[in-house]
Amino acid sequence: MPEITSLARMENLQRLTQFVAKQAQSAHLPARRVRKIELAVEEVLVNIFSYAYPDAEGPVSIACQTANDRLIIEIRDIGVPFNILEVPNPDVGAQLSERQIGGLGAFFVRKIADEVHYRREEDQNVLVLIFDHHSQDTSTFQIGA
Amino acid sequence: MEIENTGKDNGRFMVAVRGRMDAVTAPEFEKRILDWIDSGETHIILDLEELEYISSAGLRSILTIAKNLKGQQGSLVLCALQDAVKEIFEISGFNTIIPVCGSSEAALKET
């Protein structure tokens, strides 16, 4: 199973998302879907970079596998317990002056992935994102024309 | 990511943004635009025709810029979004708080 591990730092973001994009491309997912998978992974990673290790540095690892026409991405860190599924949804209908950005990244992750599973495994956060190869996400997410 | 001032048209400061606006590049984008605002450019059109990717970090920067301009009676219009970027705007509801036009010509009429 292809896997990458690096320090959970912003400067490693593009290397990590590029790894995922490469795996998604090898699984023959369409370019537009690959971009969205990169987006979901970026949002997860930025959360880890910002909150997992408040007092020190730590690692993050990403493993990808394809099974039954699904791309399964497992992201692990050994930082403070954090479940992205518990982040409240942002108010996407708020006006400009009231609009807050918090929670938007977690919202994207839940919207884009077909499935999101979180578990705490000993001292690790394990987040699993699953993307169906045949998911018609363009129709699922189209809001208006 | 590339950020380029492509001129000024009818008092509107035109900026083309190309490539990827992610958590690494968005702060640079935000700083460039805020510098232009500080130097007096308060009516800005962002041409996103060649922007391939945007994440919540990019949206955060655009929100900061929009709020800043609104606070000084300025304006921000986005134009020529690629489908993938447009979709992120729609999912986040940003298309309802920031004017988005199909082309720079339409954006000039908007502001």
CATH superfamily of chain A: Histidine kinase-like ATPase, C-terminal domain
- Named at the architecture level, the CATH assignment of chain B is 2-Layer Sandwich
Structural class of the helix and strand makeup of chain B?
alpha/beta
Order of helices and strands of chain A: EHHEEHEEH
How many distinct helices of chain B?
4
Q: Rg of chain A from C-alpha positions? A: 15 Å
Mean pLDDT rating of chain A: 91
Which percent band covers the strand fraction of chain A?
A: 25-35%
Number of strands of chain B: 6
Q: What is the helix fraction of residues of chain A, given as a range? A: 25-40%
CATH fold label of chain A: Heat Shock Protein 90
Figure out the total of helices of chain A.
4
As an assembly, this protein is heterodimer
The largest contact between protein chains, plus residue counts on each side, is: A-B, 33 and 26 residues
CATH topology of chain B: Transcription Regulator spoIIAA
Proportion of residues in extended strands of chain B: 25-35%
- The number of domains of chain B is 1
> CATH top level of chain A?
Alpha Beta
Can you tell me the overall shape of chain A?
A: globular
**CATH architecture classification of chain A:** 2-Layer Sandwich
Q: List the secondary-structure elements of chain B in sequence, H or E.
A: EEHEEHEHEH
What structural keywords apply?
heterodimer, A: 145 residues, alpha+beta, Heat Shock Protein 90, five-stranded antiparallel sheet, 4 helices, 26% strand, disordered C terminus, B: 111 residues, alpha/beta, Transcription Regulator spoIIAA, six-stranded mixed sheet, 6 strands
Folded structure, characterized:
- The complex is a heterodimer of chains A (145) and B (111).
- Chain A has four helices and five strands, in the order E-H-H-E-E-H-E-E-H.
- Chain A is α+β, with helices and mostly antiparallel strands.
- Chain A has one domain (3-139): 2-Layer Sandwich (Heat Shock Protein 90).
- Chain A is globular.
- Chain A has a five-stranded antiparallel sheet, with helices on one face.
- In chain B, 41% of the residues lie in helices and 31% in strands.
- The mean pLDDT of chain B is 96.
- Chain B is globular, with a radius of gyration of 12 Å.
- Chain B has helices at 26-38, 56-71, 83-92, 104-110, and strands spanning 2-9, 12-21, 43-47, 51-54, 75-79, 100-101.
- Chain B has a single domain (2-110), classed as Transcription Regulator spoIIAA (2-Layer Sandwich), CATH 3.30.750.24.
- Chain B has 111 residues and is α/β, with parallel strands linked by helices.
- In chain B, helix 1 (26-38) packs parallel to helix 2 (56-71).
- In chain B, strands 1, 2, 3, 4, 5 and 6 form a six-stranded mixed sheet that branches.
- The interface between A and B is medium-sized, with 33 and 26 residues.
